[in-house]
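Progress note, sequence design subtask.
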C-alpha cells in the first residue's frame, strides 16, 4: 500500500462468493528490492528498483482532460517514481517489474484526478526507495555468473510448455528473470526459496 492506493489479486473481482468486490482476493507482495550501483569517477550512481504492481494506475477506462485514457501513452506511476528519485538523490533510475501478472491497483483515494493517483503513488514509492537506500549494505562483487534454464510446466489444458528462466549472480546478489508475466505467488516462492 502506498498513499491510499494498493495492489491486489484482481481475480477476486470475479469471485461470486466474495462479498466486497472492491477489495483484492489476496494481499500482494509489498516488498521492494533495491540495488544501487556505484560508478567510478563523476558518473551518477544507478538505482534499480524492483516492485510488484502493474504500471496501470492510470486507468485504461474513462476520460482525462476530455480524452479517452485508453488512447493515452503514459509511464504511469513509474515515471513519477523516476522523476522524484532523480530529483531528490541525483541518481539514474532503472525499474524492473516484479511478479505481478495477476495484480492490479485499487484506489482508495476518493475525488482525486487521474493524474493525481499515479503521481501520488509514484512519488510515495520514490520516498520509500530513498528510505530503503539508507539501509543498503556494500557487497563484494566477485565473479559474474549468468545462466539460462528451461523446465517443463504442465498447463491447465494438460499440455506442457517449456518455461525459460534467466539468472544473474554477482557475489551475494542474484536476479532471476522470466520472459512473461509471472503471478505474485510464484514470485514470492522464488524469493522465499532462493539461497541468496
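Output:
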Amino acid at each position: 500500500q502506498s498513499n491510499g492506493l494498493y495492489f491486489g489479486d484482481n481475480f477476486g473481482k470475479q469471485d461470486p462468493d466474495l462479498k466486497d468486490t472492491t477489495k483484492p482476493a489476496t494481499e500482494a507482495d509489498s516488498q521492494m528490492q533495491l540495488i544501487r550501483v556505484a560508478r567510478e569517477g563523476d558518473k551518477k550512481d544507478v538505482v534499480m528498483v524492483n516492485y510488484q504492481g502493474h504500471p496501470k494506475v492510470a486507468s485504461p477506462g474513462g476520460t482525462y482532460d476530455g480524452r479517452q485514457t485508453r488512447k493515452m501513452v503514459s509511464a504511469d506511476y513509474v515515471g513519477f517514481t523516476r522523476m522524484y528519485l532523480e530529483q531528490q538523490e541525483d541518481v539514474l533510475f532503472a525499474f524492473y517489474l516484479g511478479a505481478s501478472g495477476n495484480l492490479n491497483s485499487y484506489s482508495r483515494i476518493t475525488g482525486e484526478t487521474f493524474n493525481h493517483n499515479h503521481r501520488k503513488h509514484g512519488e510515495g514509492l520514490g520516498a520509500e526507495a530513498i528510505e530503503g537506500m539508507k539501509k543498503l549494505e556494500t557487497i563484494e562483487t566477485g565473479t559474474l555468473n549468468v545462466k539460462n534454464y528451461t523446465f517443463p510446466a504442465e498447463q491447465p489444458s494438460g499440455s506442457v510448455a517449456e518455461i525459460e528462466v534467466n539468472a544473474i549472480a554477482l557475489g551475494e546478489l542474484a536476479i532471476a528473470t522470466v520472459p512473461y508475466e509471472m503471478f505474485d505467488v510464484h514470485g514470492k516462492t522464488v524469493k522465499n526459496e532462493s539461497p541468496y
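DSSP finds three helices and ten strands in the chain. Work on this subtask will continue into the next period as scheduled.
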